[in-house]
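Build the 3D complex.
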Amino acid sequence: MKNFKTLLAVLLIVLMGAVACEDDETVDPEKTIGKVGNYWGMYVDNNDAGDVTITQNIDGNIIASFSYDGSTHNVEGKITSNGIYDYVYSNGDRSKPFTLVKFDAKVGDKWEYNVGDKKVVRKVVKKSTTDDVEYGFYYVKTIDVEETIPTGTMVNGSSSEIKKILWKFNHKFGFIEADVTKTDNSVSKVTSLTNAGD
Amino acid sequence: MAFAISLLLFSCSSTYKKEDAIRSLKVLNSDILNLLTVTTELPEIQALKFLYNQANSPIPFKKSEFKVDNSTFKMENMKGTYIWNPELNDYDFKKDKGFIDVYFQLACMENIYFQILNYESEAYSSKPDFPTKIIAKILDGTKEKLVINHVGKVKDNLPEFMETTIKGGEYDLIAGFKRTKESGDGTIDMYWCINKGLFTIIDAKILAEISYSQQGFYYNHIAFESKVFNHTIMGTIDYKNIEPTSTNYAESFNRNATIEIFESSNIKVGDIVLVSSGVDDLQEFKIQFENNEQVLLKEYLPALDKLYNLKY
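Done.
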């Protein structure tokens, strides 16, 4: 379940990716969806997974909080105008961000993060040319990133229970959805149906 | 201090030629395999395997389709006598005492039972929960075959310290862990050893410098030394300077890590290095001999693979 927590952590960082579409990498937290106090509702397989709330944003480096399993958890990430980065695999080491998406990326672009002798790969597998993915009352374009996590990859001190994530992002709304495949091959769909930035 | 003395000692070493290094590795591999074989055949380990494999065993850690979850194990609710019923493939239960006794049959011990006198655990930022108190025994009649004593403490949602001793008939295992925190930084000091009689079979120490984050902590630097039978594996890993997103990660890792294997007489067997295989982004640990030739570590130490993949 810890990995589910980690997944939520990444997802909420992604949610704040709706700051995309600006031309430079500077970040004014007050003008982004990562503004302190903003919150989102998360759903896993259509079940309410609670809210995530921004509690700190310093030059794009954010801390967000959510409740899970009776406890409050904090996670860190970084949002710039052109990309979203997380510190999941570095366990919070801010000197080692891992790119989750860059909105100007092309199909085939990939980013890698090494954990010991394991290599986590995030690869752009699709970029819509038409509004073809349902999002609430809209259809939107997405950029799809497939994340592959080798068996035995350590996350926060234990082996990852997730082996693949297919992320879908939109340049305006940020995170759209993710199909998460666990090591037992079960698949969950994670969505955000509300957005404080609207 | 111990690391400094070791570094001094091992810095005066000579290095084996490849052929002698291979012989030395084969000896190490054989020592590890023998230890695994002897350990898995011990009656008390057979007993633990039996308990681990039964879904209804009243123990906190047992085989599960999913990740081990010991949070549901509450000693208070489980006290009593459990007697294995092979016809039902389950335990008969009597709530008759203030601790847990588990009776079962093993071919190698007729009057075996497992006793849990105390077990407490505490949730922290990861799973499974961290045990903070364990007193347990395996007995054959009145004779103690294995005695487990463990204390631990959680602080700031992370394990802070633990001391564990497991005493068998002719051997004992001692393990310890201590974490410190000062402002945003800290240290982790870990050790474990296995002694058989007067001989120390394994003696491992790890000293890590860490920094804290919202997610827990991350490593900046690790120094370790592990004596395994007649060999010593020691090294340092300067995590802070390793670039995990580098296109040449293996080079970055090797530039910031030194891992060496010695035979106990201070003769160096080789260096352990990370090498990109060039296939499917795979990276593998290899041993580099005196002549700079590199061979997959698991080729000469397949026991390591066996150790990593122990399954019951």
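Helices of chain A lie at 2-15.
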